[in-house]
Amino acid sequence: MLNWSDLCSILTVLLSGLTGATAAHDQKGSWVVIGLFAIGGLLIGYAFATGASKLAYFALGRSCMPRGRQGTASTWAYSFLYMTIPILSLLAAAAATVFLTVGVLSFTK
């Protein structure tokens, strides 16, 4: 079953590869350069997605409190973290891929 963290992990990997290819194309790179930065974006996305998934599952495990403590503020806070960590990771991976691609291609011109 695909849950929130896994869905965001898949989207992070795909979006990072797409942003790497798009940024390389925007900088007028050749097809080889576009392919290399798309693969680099996939790798960056995978690294961000793996780390975010581990953090999100840690937060989800912390939100499962023993009986009698359910519904407390800490439970809600950890549940909120479970929802926001993958989204923030998705945005950070896309931004890192674009900054890396534009920075490297601007430096080589």
- Mean pLDDT value: 86
Compute the CA-based radius of gyration: 17 Å
Low-confidence stretches: none
Helix run count: 3
Number of strands: 0
Task: Give the proportion of residues in helices.
Answer: over 70%
Global outline: elongated
Strand fraction equals: under 5%
**Computed structural class:** mainly alpha
End-to-end gap: 46 Å
Element string (H = helix, E = strand): HHH
Sheet with the most strands, sense and barrel status = none
How would you describe what is shown here?
With 109 residues, the chain is mainly α. It is 84% helix and 0% strand. The protein has 3 helices and no strands. Helix 1 runs parallel beside helix 3. The longest helix has 36 residues. The radius of gyration is 17 Å and the shape is elongated. It starts with a helix and ends with a helix. The relative contact order is 0.21. The mean pLDDT is 86.
Can you summarize this structure?
By secondary structure, the chain is mainly α. It has three helices and no strands. It has helices at residues 4-26, 31-63, 73-108.
Keywords, please?
3 helices, 109 residues, mainly alpha
Describe the SSE topology.
Elements lengths: L3 H23 L4 H33 L9 H36 L1
